[in-house]
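Usage

Read records sequentially. Each one opens with the input sequence:
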Amino acid sequence: QFSRHIYRHEEGRPSVLKNDKKALSLSYYFLDHPGWNPVRELTAEEHIFLLMPLRHTPTPDRLRLVMQHIKMREEYSRSSNVIMERFKKITHHRLLDQESGSRWNSEFGDLFEFEEQNLDRTNLSKETLYKTVESFIREKTKKKKIEVNDYFSLWWR
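and closes with the structure output:
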């Protein structure tokens, strides 16, 4: 997903396609790795992260595989997980679209997976992800100091 946002203005999006291919390869590697069970080894959130490349490059077979993993997770945990339920709902919509040939705009569906958060930005700069993204933006923009609003202006341009 990061590469989709970073390279979204690139003509033809070859960098996105290249990163999608890498992400799919890694997902399949870990999902098919003998003796390793992502349902037992990962949290629900980590498992979703591992499945995202399959869902972001949807085919009926990939989406069915995602749904199989969701079902295994549900059977293993025996309890409801809000994030997993939302992930399942959007994946199910995408699978129906793929099978029926309709074009529900599933890119926007991702926006509805997670509840809106009222985030406190005062301590944001202390987060590891913030520091990583800040370093990337600083390198790309050659700025010495990055403000929170710089993220949003770079994100939406």
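Summary fields computed downstream for this record:
- DSSP finds nine helices and no strands in the chain.
- Confidence is low (pLDDT under 50) at residues 106-114.
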